[in-house]
Amino acid sequence: MHRHIAAALVAAALPAAAVMAETYVCRVRPDARGAWIPATLIITYQDETGEGLVYDEIIKTFFDKPLPARVKVDNDKRITFVWTLPEFKVPDGATVLRFDFRATLLKKSRRIVVHSSPAGFDNEFSGRGRCRLQG
Asked: Does CATH number 2.40.128 belong to domain 2-134?
């Protein structure tokens, strides 16, 4: 079932312009129950332009389209992407002002660590997993 979800997310996340991009499909396990960490994270990245897009079930639920990601670090060992979920409402009607995300992908092992934190709060969520290069 997870493969079907990942395939659907990849299909939805890939705009025509990003076809030549590297696409990573990552399975992530949150470190704590109830953490704002996606189970499946898709990252597309064009090395030539430095542009990235991210898509996951959280983004799908609240925005229904991939969001831009900025590359914060890119060296021989790792690449770190950062992105923000702008203000949105959760099902109980509460407004979330902003959620900041950071994902670090180790290039050789394709292991990933994802962190998220809500604006205005001290708590941070995290999760770990492994990615595969789609293609």
From this structure: yes
Buried b (16+ CB within 10 A) or exposed e, 41-64: bbbbbeeeeebbbbbbebbbebee
Using CA atoms, how far apart are residues 91 and 2, in angstroms rounded to an integer? Answer: 24
Residue type, 47: D
Q: What is the pLDDT of residues 79-92, one digit of tens each?
A: 999 999 988 787 77
Taking the C-alpha atoms of residue 76 and residue 64, their distance in angstroms, rounded to an integer, is 33
SS3 20: coil
The span from the first CA to the last CA of the chain, in angstroms, equals 20
Flag residues of the chain having pLDDT under 50.
Answer: 1-2, 4, 16-18
Q: Which two tokens stand for residue 3?
A: 């493969």
Domain boundaries, the chain: 2-134
Longest CA pairwise span in the chain (Å): 44
Question: Of 112, 124, 17, which Cα lies nearest the Cα of 56?
Answer: 112
The predicted model scores a pTM of 0.82
What single DSSP character describes residue 41?
Answer: E
